[in-house]
From TrEMBL:
Enzyme class: transferase
EC number: 2.7.7.65
GO terms under biological process: cell adhesion involved in single-species biofilm formation; negative regulation of bacterial-type flagellum-dependent cell motility
Protein's name in the database: diguanylate cyclase
Record InterPro entries: Diguanylate_Cyclase, GGDEF_dom, Nucleotide_cyclase, Rev_trsase/Diguanyl_cyclase
Species, as recorded: Bowmanella dokdonensis
Transmembrane segments: 12-33, 39-60, 72-95, 101-122, 134-152
Stored Gene3D superfamilies: 3.30.70.270
Catalysed reactions, as listed in the record: 2 GTP = 3',3'-c-di-GMP + 2 diphosphate
Pfam families linked to this entry: GGDEF
Amino acid sequence: MFYRLRNDFRLSVISLLSLCAFVGITPFALYRFWQGNMLAALVDSLILFSILSVLTYAWFSGDTKRSGFLMALVVSAGGLTIVNLLGLVGLFWLYPCFITGFFLTSSRMAVLINGITLLALFVLKLDSLSLEHLISFATTALVVSACAYIFALRNESQHRRLAHIATLDPLTGVKNRRAMEEELSRAVANFERHQLSCALVILDLDHFKAINDNHGHGVGDSVLNQCVQILGENIRKSDRLFRFGGEEFVLLLPGVDRQGMHSVVDNLYQVVRSELKCPSGPVTASYGATLLQAGDTADSWMERADTALYQAKQNGRDKVVLS
């Protein structure tokens, strides 16, 4: 539970807001029931029930994007209802609604919801609110929303940047294992839905440890970067290259059949063999490749390619094995 709260910002906001709503609204609902103000008590209860329902949906479904949007709608609608019941005093409840909307949903959607909420205040023309009060509130609410919007935009930009960095290998600049696992799962899903063929290739640089031992890790890093450059220049834009770890790389080749896979791997084998070098001479690689098959999972697909790579190494390295 705590792991999900630490690692899912939107879920943590939904949970915290729900807790605050439960603590803040429940006493009012009970007090109004005790006073006999059944309408206000029922409205409080309905708002509380809606918020807790969204919270439950968020935790069980994991769909925090939709849950955040629903929560923003519930909070804004609840704020409008409170203004209708309490008049001028209720306006203060809308400020937190306007701010939290930017944490619950996208900045553009939050702006839209806040704008509709302000427009509804003027359209309803509540008897307890003068035009002066509405204009004063709208002005301050716009300032609050603008500040929250700027903060949300910066937060979204930083989140995208960090998410992008988290998928890159810091040495070679290609995508890392985490990104590879996502791409493999996506390829399997596309195959199940649209029968889009895809090939998986694992290549491992031969005797790489000897390069590090004999020439130092700086030379080893240079060889890895050379390998990435050579591979990048000899694959299509639609192909995906990943550093699996150490001296292993993975290629995802969408839309190829067995003959196409054989052609691509053979070309890479020849190019790497002739162009990749270190101070002690040429650097070769071993290759294991396989096509995505019906019933495959990402793990079984990867395991079959890894088995083919192991066979290539067992055959003396500098070999290609197609599974």
